[in-house]
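hey so i finally got around to running both of the ones u sent me last week. sorry it took forever, my laptop kept dying halfway thru and i had to restart like 3 times lol. anyway pasting them below in the order u listed, first the sequence line then the structure token line for each. didnt double check formatting much so if smth looks off just lmk and ill redo it

first one:
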Amino acid sequence: MKKIQLLFSPLLILFLFWGCSDNGTNNNHQPENQPPEITIETPSEGDTLINFPILISISASDPDTDDIVVMIYADGEILATLDSEPYSTSWIGTMESGEKIIKACVSDDSLITCDSIKVYVPEREGDFSLRLDANSSKAVFIVWDKLSSADVYRYIVFMNEGTDVDTTNTKIDSLLGVNDTAIFVSSLNPLTTYSFLVISLPYVGKKPLSNVLTVTTEEVASTHDDHAELIRIPIGSFDRGDTWGEGGAEEYPIMEIFLSEYYIYKYEVTCAQYKEFMDASGYNDPEWWDEEGWTWKYEYNITQPKKWNNPDYNLGDAFPDYPVHGVSWHEASAYARFVGRKLPTEAQWECAARGVVGLDRNTDGVPDGYKFPWDDDFYMNDTVHCNYRSKNDGGTDDYNDGFAFSAPVGSFPSGESPWGLMDMCGNVSEWCNDWFSMGYYNEPGTPINNPQGPDTGNDKCFRGGSYIYSSSIALPGYNLRTCKRFSANPETQRLDLGFRLVVD
């Protein structure tokens, strides 16, 4: 197909666009072939357009050829050039009210035919519209349509408590980029009225303003009881790190850590428990999310764990007693807020897994705990004690754990930790609350009392190994040791990664 610009000079196209007649005839010359035909189907002549964006639909044909090009214009601006059906495009709208012209032209190799209609855009409050997408006691999520009539490079958001707001009030954000058309505003007070205004900054021309959006936050939501069985970990010290001399640098130094009393889930959070969060519209309620998690969820349209209700992964409604997995750190944290609990710190998790039992190899007066939750011997009593990648599902040892993927929680009672927790290694790995740092415990000033991990980072910690990790005679259960550290981006939805929670 030849392009339009090869058939017509720019000056002629401009003349044809603004001056062609609807029947496509030429008074000086009658072409031998028939002119193409075109009709604007929607919107209709005289329509008042309020709710943008709108769909402009065209019917076009040529009795002599299928080789045609359709051009669609609105308010003097070209919206689309189409060479195949459907001949339609979206018009995001205009910030200026009044009568507007929508025009469509169809061309073949020699002729052009146009159709046009007049529509009316009424005056609106503000040049573009803010909308409340979600509300809670402490956060609101506000969205607006991307502007097209101005070359906008930044949006500035203002907020004020009460029903009035202008550009002299608190500037809460400056969003660089025309595609940033949403904002999550947190740290609000419950049952309080706030007003919001957005101003856009174009490269040239006036600064379009939004309407003023007034929102009253909701009352504080009640947390949910997921009826999880809790295990008490008493106040005291334990040794963290690789006291067996097998691990990587991230597992050192060996250090005595003091922890206050806490309670931890005996089992990993199950699909049945997590489904209660989903059924309570947990993915749509900002009450349970922080800004980073909500923004990630909104951007990627996350509405459930990865592969939810996929039987190939033992995940979903049909697997109530299996651990939930395929959840990001953000999702795990949202669930924790939903039930009024927390993800464990790395230190809390490790203490609960290894205990304060066994030998004292470094003679610091604190027993080392176990390399694996049940003992220092992965194959103790020539028995399988956890769900891992054994011989039956492609592993390199001679044992069979009975499961190709995840298993119902508590399926390996001989693998319980000294405190009585189940599945602290194998089955699914478990998110911790901490940011990951290779040398956190080597850094000057790292607290030995209730350490919380670094203040910032790129990855979050997770622990415990999972069903994807194999064992060998040379290094039995290496990735399933209680001191083994892992990390992943908090947005990661690994299909072997779940969580359990703590109560301080």
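and the second one:
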Amino acid sequence: MIEIAEKLHYLNARVRAMKGDLLDRKDYQKMLKMEPKEISEFLGNLTYSEEIDRLGIEYEGKKLVELAILKDQIKTSEKLVRISKGSYRKVIKRYLLKYDIRNIRKILMWRQSNRETRMPKEELKEYLKESPNLSDRDFDHLMEEDMDLDDIKEFLYMKMPDIKGGLEEAGNLLELEVMLDKSYYRSLKRILKDTDNMTHQVKSFLSYKIDVANIKTVTRLKEAEKKEKIREFLIIPENSSKIGKLDRKTLETMVEQEWDEFLQSLRDTYLSCFLDKKIENREHLENCLDRNLLKKSRNMSLDKPFTISTVIGYLVQKEIEVRNLRSIVRSKELGIKEEEIKKRLIM
């Protein structure tokens, strides 16, 4: 018991030290005034130095920053797996499956795109390297032209047995993307319960994260005028009414509402306290919800400092940092004004 406690203290001490390397508001303020090349130089003096130096031989500007931060994110995740033990390691590895799913979804989207106009395989692979559980050979296999839906499912069953439940229901590649997300969240909640790591903060965080994902689905389907797809895209199992706090009926009602009515319905839920007084558009709404996600991740270690809460909280903060950096360099490349970029950042 003493040995286990010492390992938990060691892991949490390392995570707290890693949190000290995260970018803060002042760092973002500085980068808002820089061009992509200057941003890569700025990051090269921080925790991203190893990736910036190695990749800087071949890339520069926006592409250098994007590749460097993605590789650093995976390196950080692998470090957490390496220094963790027992049930902690199982939970972290299960959480990190999301990065494999992110890569698989990119490949599935690529497979659904026009063969004549889609990017070459080698270019796509530049953004798929360093996946926690999938190798370059796995990516090549998933991109083979003669792979059909059943072949892809069989491959995923073999490589990702922890989330295979439910994938058999997918009738096409788009449905397979959705089922991957549903299976992932069910699997994550299950292992947290099984290993007694479902602290109050973790449970609240997961519930909120699922609700936010479903609200984003509602708003994007409304915008794309594909309201009829709501049932298949929600992260709610077919045999359940809900998995977060918002139930299926509430979400299906929201997708049919006009914008103002939808916002009022949203303000009638527990999410109301996280919204600005006036919501301008979908991006503004998502920014409000994601800001609270960041706040929750920062507070997770306050519940029980020496539990998985600290680790998951850090991983979420790292994810948001990566999103912010990508948003900055992409916006700079498009010539978007500083004030507009600032509105998009999650701080």
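quick thing i noticed on the 2nd:
The chain has a mean pLDDT of 86.
anyway thats it, ttyl
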